[in-house]
Amino acid sequence: MASAGKSYCISFQNIQAALSTVRPFVKKTPVMTCSHLNRLANRNLFFKCENLQKTGSFKFRGACNAVSKVVASNQDGPDRELSVVTHSSGNHAQAVSLAAQVQGVTAHIVMPSNSPAVKKEAVRSYGGLIVECEPTEQSRVDTADQVAEKTGATMVHPNQSPEVMAGQGTMVFEILEQVERVDAIVVPVGGGGMLSGISVAAKELCPHAKIYAAEPKNADDCAVSMARGERTPLPAPPVTMCDALKTSIGPRTWPIIRDHVDDVITVTEEEIEAAMRLVWERMKLVIEPSSAVGVAAVMTDKFQKLPANAHQNVVVILCGGNVDLEHLPWMSQN
User: Fold this and answer.
1) How far apart are CA 61 and CA 27, in angstroms?
2) Tens of each residue's pLDDT in the chain, 334 residues
3) Would 241 disulfide with which of 6, 112, 289, 311, CB 3.0-4.6 Å?
């Protein structure tokens, strides 16, 4: 757990500042409940609907904060066209594209060639300039570096940028206005930007609340890292329907996760698909597989065995709702 005296790349004060920065741009997303899911989990579940955020995911928060800093840092500089670059499988790409568009900044977006078509189309609709790369983490990084060198664009990393991490943490302020008492927060984890931001904010604002990471078993580097006590990146690109959770936790997010997160719950592809379908059918909400990871986590035996009195009111982050309707998980069986 977090201990006094440790220094991380973001602080609670950074998240407070980010709240003021992003407030003019982002939606205050609703928290929804479902009595049927409550019965299945034997808990009071509160779903923070970031799938209803602009661009369809929580990523818009961090992107707005990061792009705003680029604009602010150049206010007194030479009169030139500002630009940013990032690499993303889709959600962060869309978020940076729109955040840049509304602030008059050019966005160069490096995307894996196998990114869902619906996400590429959305990026273009928000004004993002797509540069395709091979579907590996190294290719994404190398291509983004090349674009930055060629254009002079400022890098906005999907999860290791402190400004992005701080922006993601702003949702905790909303959650605590919307839920009377929060006992636990369940957060999907890929690169760890959202998990880090939420953890830092929550441990300050509601220190009694437990923080749980939810992760696909097929991309379980966070669980392995926590078990070993050292960051252990995935050895190869994982095979999972959760395209937004295929990246490993990074060097900046790892110390925060290590010291703030109470546990990691992993779920199978079958559990993820079932949870996604459950939310679509019973809550009438469009969520993507990465969102379903958190829902699946609270249905597991591991979560069910946690002390009920300390885990009665549980917030589950529905992190995104960007899906390719031509390739839904349950359609592949037909």
Assistant:
1) 9
2) 545 568 899 999 999 999 999 999 999 999 999 999 999 999 999 999 999 999 999 999 999 999 999 999 887 666 678 999 999 878 999 999 999 999 999 999 999 898 777 778 889 999 999 999 998 878 989 999 999 999 999 999 999 999 999 999 999 999 999 999 999 999 999 999 999 999 999 999 999 999 999 999 999 999 999 999 999 999 998 999 998 899 899 999 999 999 999 999 999 999 999 999 999 999 999 999 999 999 999 999 999 999 999 999 999 999 999 888 888 888 865 4
3) 289
89 is catalytic: yes
Please identify which of the residues 83, 89, 115, 225 carries the catalytic annotation: 89
The verdict on whether 246 is a catalytic residue reads no
State pTM to two decimals: 0.94
Torsion over CA of 60, 63, 64 and 68, rounded to 10 degrees?
180
**Residue by residue, what is the 3-state secondary structure of the chain?**
CCCCCCCCCCCHHHHHHHHHHHCCCCCCCCEECCHHHHHHHCCEEEEEEHHHCHHHECHHHHHHHHHHHHHHHCCCCCCCCCEEEEECCCHHHHHHHHHHHHCCCEEEEEEECCCCHHHHHHHHHCCCEEEEECCCHHHHHHHHHHHHHHHCCEECCCCCCHHHHHHHCCHHHHHHHHCCCCCEEEEECCCCHHHHHHHHHHHHHCCCCEEEEEEEHHHCHHHHHHHHCCCCCCCCCCCCCCHHHCCCCCCCHHHHHHHHCCEEEEECHHHHHHHHHHHHHHHCCCCCHHHHHHHHHHCCHHHHCCCHHHCCEEEEEECECCCCCCCCHHHHHC
The token pair that represents 26 in the structure block: 């982002």
> To 5 degrees, how large is the angle CA 25–CA 28–CA 29?
120
